[in-house]
Amino acid sequence: MKIAIIGAGAMGSLFGSLLSKVSQPVLYDLNTQHVGAIKEHGLRVSYPDRTETIAIHAVSDANELEAMDAVILFVKHPYTQGALQDGLKKAITPNTVVVSLQNGLGNTDLMKQVLNPAQIVYGFSTLTSDLVEPGHIHVTCDLSLHTAMWPLNHQPSPALQRLCELMNQAGLNTSISANVEHDIWMKLLVNASLNSLCGILQQTVGQVVNTPESRQLLDRIVFETADVAQAKGLAISREKALQHVLHVAEFTRDHIPSMAIDIRNRKPTEIEAINGAIVRQGQQLNVATPVTEFAANLVRSLQQHYPAPTPTSH
Predict the structure, then answer these.
(1) How far is CA 83 from CA 8, 95, 111, 132, in A?
(2) Chain centre to alpha carbon of residue 282
(3) Residue 307, CB half-sphere, CA atoms under 13 Å: how many?
(4) Which of 148, 182, 246, 280 has CA atoms 20 to 30 A from the CA of 159?
(5) DSSP letter string over 158-196?
(6) Neighbours of 270 (CB within 10 A)
(7) What is the pLDDT of residue 49?
(8) What pTM was computed for the model?
(9) What is the pLDDT of residues 226-237, one digit of tens each?
């Protein structure tokens, strides 16, 4: 099965490294330094107890991709449209299964603008990974954490079933699940609370959870998000929501979420697809989300007023 991963940062590279054990995936990313390092030295993958170097094909020119059976999107939400256009140059054909495992809400809406709904699959993964330097990622979670997918037309195709089989053979705990909407909101709980607070405070997951003041904010964001989910008809209680977030945090204590990295590197974040989306849905459902909106506004303010890089002397 021909598989391309579009958006080969920390998460895309992790999935690519594992899939390379059972197939020959291609990583596509516009980060030429990262792609160049993989080409020259292979992809270094650090686990808590070991480091592996994986030989894997990586490109930064979309024209180097060929027609694929499956494409997995791991780009951040602001880059979804550009990634789809790049994929449509060659990799994405009318027969290609296109899977979004991206954070947040609204990615499938963008996919529907350019793809046949029958080829769109959406889902999530609770795995975490950090990009240490070009060509080197650090896995910051237990690989037993879950990944799930579901086709937009509710009819799993043989190609999707084959992709799921390969992912499981590769060690990715993956399912094709009609319950994915519920599970996406369970991940949204994690992203809205931990990602935003880690980004604002520039701290690890463990630091945010262990500090009483930030823990209080985390609890409020989790409860508000659970209230919106319940108003949508999803069976997610406040107690269940907080238990889930703290469980994920326990397995990812040393992780620095991508939103924190984006803010540190003065890049656009996914705040509109995460906290912003929760606030908007809350407004539609008459559910108050003041702390979630507060966190979103802080991230928006940081983005609008990133300081200029400090000049370096030569």
Answers:
(1) 11, 18, 10, 23
(2) 22
(3) 4
(4) 182
(5) HHHHHHHHHHHHTT--EEE-TTHHHHHHHHHHHIIIIIH
(6) 27
(7) 87
(8) 0.87
(9) 999 999 999 999
Contact of 104 with 258, CB cutoff 8 Å: no
- pLDDT on residue 307: 67
Strand order through the sheet with 50-54: 50-54, 43-47, 136-139, 129-133
Q: How many residues does the chain have?
A: 314
Q: What is the pLDDT of residues 171-202, one digit of tens each?
A: 999 999 999 999 999 999 999 999 999 999 99
Among 195, 287, 194, smallest CA distance to 242 is for 194
State the Cα–Cα distance between residues 61 and 56, nearest whole angstrom: 16
Average confidence score pLDDT of the chain: 94
